[in-house]
Write a structure and sequence with these properties.
With about 300 residues, the protein is of the alpha/beta class. The protein is built from 9 helices and 10 strands. It folds into 2 domains: about 240 residues, von Willebrand factor, type A domain (Rossmann fold); about 35 residues, no CATH class.
């Protein structure tokens, strides 16, 4: 529990809990994380590819005896070694993330998700790297299979997170698309990308960027959401603002509360529609609840794959 800010030690302490996360599916299926390539997120090793007629020089240990018996001619199994696929995290820390009404700010929940996924990936033996952006700077750590590199990454996350204040100027409207463009130009094709953001800067241009990104990478979006982004506050009068202006919200008025709920649902629907167009999984993580149990329910149960396969 860290409220508006995280600490490096807190992100390091997630290491043991993150070991229970299963980012990788064992079954050989085409998943939402596989894209047009054989997905690195389905586990490492040798994967069955096809059966063909036996040829002189083939290893007799790979003969498929069932097909051989059925056809009367020797057949052998061919296997394909799965491609190395680094895990890259795009972490949003722009000022809209500096918000929270219970437990943690969205920026903190996002940082915790980034740390948990990083530790889980490294435990699996993957190269892990990332970029944290806030509309002013973009701090990048290149993927390596190294605890030291991961610690450099978490330190960058902590520094950017701790730089946010209520007076931080709003990020440019292009901040989300700029991050996607950066990923396209600087991350090796075939990477697994976790984009962690509230997605409030999605706009019409985002479609093009996501289309291009999803063509050559496996993409998953993790969206930290605050309770007030899916339900109105308790009946009362509230002063709300965006850093530039303020207005009054009176949730004692049932019509205003109903409109508030409609706006929340519309926002969620718009985000889901954009991502669904490219079969990109969306994981909503509540900022009012601990991160690890929520990630466990998603990844350990394989819900991403079942929903989008």
């Amino acid at each position: 529990m860290s409220g508006p800010y995280t600490t490096l030690q807190e992100l390091i302490d997630l290491r043991s809990d993150a070991s229970s996360l299963s980012l990788y599916a064992n079954q050989h299926v085409r998943s939402a994380l596989s894209g047009q390539h054989r997905s690195r997120l389905r586990g490492r090793g040798i994967d069955f590819d096809e059966v063909r007629r036996y040829q002189p020089g083939d290893d007799i240990r790979t003969i498929d005896w069932r097909v051989t018996a059925r056809s009367g001619k020797p057949h052998t199994k061919l296997f394909r070694e799965e491609r190395e696929r680094p895990v890259f995290i795009l972490l949003d820390q722009n000022p809209t993330m500096f918000f929270g009404s219970e437990l943690n700010f969205k920026s903190v929940t996002a940082a915790q998700c980034a740390a948990a996924i990083s530790w889980a990936a490294l435990k699996h033996g993957d190269r892990i790297g990332g970029a944290v952006f806030n509309g002013i700077e973009n701090r990048q750590i290149k993927p390596k299979r190294s605890t030291r590199t991961l610690l450099h990454w978490l330190n960058a996350v902590t520094e950017i997170n701790n730089s946010l204040t209520s007076k931080t100027p709003p990020a440019p409207i292009s901040v989300f698309n700029d991050a996607l463009m950066f990923a396209r130009s600087s991350i090796n094709s075939g990477s697994a990308i976790f984009l962690i953001s509230d997605c409030l800067h999605i706009n019409p241009e985002t479609d093009t960027q996501l289309f291009q990104l999803a063509k050559s990478h496996d993409v998953v979006v993790i969206r930290p959401i605050d309770r007030l982004e899916h339900e109105p506050p308790a009946p009362g009068r509230y002063v709300i603002g965006d850093g530039n202006s303020q207005s009054l919200l009176d949730t004692r008025d049932k019509d205003i509360s109903a409109e508030y709920l409609r706006n929340c649902q519309t926002q969620q629907d718009e985000i889901e529609n954009v991502l669904t167009n490219y079969a990109i999984p969306l994981i909503n993580i509540r900022c009012g609840l601990p991160v690890i149990p929520q990630l466990q329910r998603v990844f350990a149960a394989g819900k991403i794959r079942k929903r989008y396969v």
